[in-house]
Amino acid sequence: MRRRRADVCRPGFAGGDAAGAIAALPWRGHILESVVSSSPSLPDWRHIEIALAPLQLALNPAELHGALVGWLAGGGDADGAWLGKVLADADLPQPEDRGLSELRDATVASLRDDELVFHLLLPDDDAPLAQRGNALFDWCRAFLGGFGLAAGANPPLSEEGSEALDDLAKLAMAETDSEGDEEDEEAFAEIEEFVRVATLLLHGDVVLAARPRETLH
Q1: Is 152 left (phi over 0), alpha (psi -120 to 50) or beta?
Q2: An example Gene Ontology cellular component term from the record (predicted)?
């Protein structure tokens, strides 16, 4: 996979050292200790593709999910005309497809879950690595847009949160064109985990910190 401008990823995927970057994050182990294998069930990729088609929106399921998660992590709500809020288009109609509502509900639930079971909506594991990689970077770009809309220009971030946001911005400028090998698959998994944990940290800084302080265990 070719490098563009990301420097938090392993060579062969997008440049740099993903494992080292993740391990260096002081908040990584604190959050990962609580992760369990179960999670709220997101609709699958194809279902969301079909649900989006009638809306004629120029975005894929990863971009929709990234924008939704960014909006929620930045303190936005997903009530009422949530799609228009998330995509900054007040003229968007309420989605009629139940799959989009299920996506919203499962995403909200996973971010609120005390066991931190949140995960990203990406193509299935049997999809080509290039497709999954580009979807991951699309997710990051959309997340930044949604987060900025909800949190504003100066969100109340910790030092670690600011670093995580910077790293997501670097990933948002990356792309991939590799068919993938075992090393690339490992790098992809590391980067996906990096994004997942960074998202939880930002949600914690902006949303959870605004509530009565609770220790994340």
Answers
A1: left
A2: cytosol
Closest CA to 34 of 212, 202, 216, 193: 216
Structure tokens at 163: 């670093």
Q: State which amino acid sits at residue 40.
A: P
SS3 state at 172: helix
d(CA 174, CA 172): 6
Ranges of H-type helices in the chain: 18-24, 28-32, 45-52, 61-73, 82-86, 98-112, 129-151, 159-172, 182-206
Domain boundaries, the chain: 45-208
Is the model more confident about 155 or about 115?
155
**Which of 48-52, 60-64, 180-184, 191-195 is predicted with the least confidence, judged by mean pLDDT?**
180-184
Decide if pLDDT at 190 tops 80.
yes
CATH topology of domain 45-208: Four Helix Bundle (Hemerythrin (Met), subunit A) (1.20.120)
How much of the chain, in percent, has pLDDT values that exceed 90? 60
* 81 CB burial (10 A radius; 0-12, 13-18, 19+): middle
Q: Can you read off the two tokens belonging to residue 33?
A: 């200790």
Averaged pLDDT score across all residues of the chain = 82
Q: The whole model's pTM is what? A: 0.81
The answer to whether residues 71 and 58 touch, using CB atoms and an 8 Å cutoff, is no
